[in-house]
Amino acid sequence: MAADAHLAELNPEQRLAACHGVEDDGVPWPGQALLILAGAGTGKTTTLAHRVAQLILKGADPDRILLLTFTRRAAEMMVARAERICAAALGEGSGFAGRLHWAGTFHAVGARLLREHADSIGLAPGFTILDRGDAADLLDMARQELGLARTDRRFPQKGTCLAIYSYAVNATAPLDRVLRDGFPWCAEWTAELKRLFSAYVAAKQRQGVLDFDDLLLWWERMAQVPVVATALGSRFDHVLVDEYQDTNAIQAAILKALKPDGLGLTVVGDDAQAIYAFRAATVRNMLEFER
After folding, report:
1. What CATH class is the domain 5-119+236-287?
2. 198 and 165 in contact (C-beta within 8 Å)?
3. Within 10 Å of residue 124's Cβ, how many Cβ atoms?
């Protein structure tokens, strides 16, 4: 099977996206940033999988390709599809299967990179990751210790407090703005919530644990450490992101830190399908991508 034969499955627009910057023979150098806008049912996943395969078939190193998705299953399906295309093009016995090592959710990839660079940023490599339930319980302990559970007026419950904290982290927004725009019924507790969140962060640090939001926060902050920034910036030639309309401000900041000049960055999304605004996702990441 010829290296380009798989492209026959694509329509002209899909083929244009899959081949962007890799049309010619030879190793595909990271090209200009690419935003693929595609509506429902237009084959976004198919196009991205074929783009990954095309990069590899034209000489890109699979170990230097990072594929970011929003579910583990989506990552597994994308990798499986790209590997099937490559295996078919390279022939049976090519031994290609299993060579795409860097694919997963933002949180999973973040955790992996944090463990690699933990010593450089003051983290213990064996840090524990709290699930949402454990994070809410730890925050509630701080809430109890500060006496906020016994106020005359009803203080927000632990689930609401965690939602506020998580939104502020992911939106990279000040607490007063988060409360004003998303949780106005809690605005009267601004000072108390600041105290609570400070106590929650201190408790996590004492116990050597991170919550899910920390995986993104620490990744973004880690990218500001010069020695780590250099290592991360040179780690991947190509970064591809699925469902870009569901990214939030901190995820966009991570991508900018990884590829400050945009070279080698591909994002795919549909601005009409943004469904995670409650998690601070913002379609502005797509609308402002070119800038």
Report:
1. alpha beta
2. no
3. 11
99 exposure class (CB count in 10 Å sphere: 0-12, 13-18, 19+):
middle
Q: Let me know if 31 is exposed, middle or buried by CB neighbors in 10 A (0-12, 13-18, 19+).
A: middle
Per-residue model confidence as pLDDT tens digits over 208-229? 999 999 999 999 999 988 888 8
Q: Are 246 and 70 in contact (CB under 8 A)?
A: yes
Q: For residue 105, give the amino acid letter.
A: T
φ, ψ for residue 234 (rounded to 5)? -95, 0
Rounded to two decimals, the pTM is: 0.88
Supply the DSSP symbol for 23: -
Q: What is the pLDDT of residues 49-102, one digit of tens each?
A: 999 999 988 888 999 999 999 889 988 998 898 888 888 877 765 566 667 889
184: exposed, middle or buried (Cβ count in 10 Å: 0-12, 13-18, 19+): exposed
pLDDT digits (tens, 9 = 90+) for 123-153: 988 999 999 999 999 999 999 999 997 766 7
Q: How many CA atoms lie within 13 A of 150 on its CB side?
A: 6
Residue 280 region, left (φ>0) first, then alpha (ψ -120 to 50), else beta?
Answer: left
- The alpha carbon of residue 196 and the mean position of all alpha carbons in its chain are separated, in whole angstroms, by 27
